[in-house]
Amino acid sequence: MTSFQDVPLSSTLQISNFAHVIFQNVAKSYLPNAHLEYHYTLTQYIHPYPKDWVSIFKVGWSTARDYYTFLWSPMPEHYVEGATVNYLLSFQGVENRSQEIS
């Protein structure tokens, strides 16, 4: 399940030279096979592209190849350049594959 909405830049977002994608309420760990919802914001300083993705990485990851799973980030239907957009991505029952990853 994915959803998004256009929102104005508010005082809850801090402008940064580095963080152009801001994830909200990220836990330090998650239970295996749990349903996970990721809420994140694209600031006005980043342009969404059809091949943008969000992934779950194993502990101690060192390269982009160290992911467990990923979802493509949807393109907003009525995106206006320079707009801030909130997203929600849902990972359904993410499997603990630690034994499969070498």
Automatic annotation (TrEMBL):
It comes from the Eukaryota. InterPro entries: SKICH, UBA_autophagy_assoc_protein. The keyword Coiled coil applies. Transmembrane segments: none annotated. Gene3D superfamilies: 2.60.40.2840. Residues 21-94 form the SKICH domain. It holds the Pfam family SKICH. Keywords: Coiled coil. PANTHER family: SKICH DOMAIN-CONTAINING PROTEIN (PTHR31915), TAX1-BINDING PROTEIN 1 (PTHR31915:SF8). This is SKICH domain-containing protein. It comes from Monodelphis domestica (Gray short-tailed opossum).
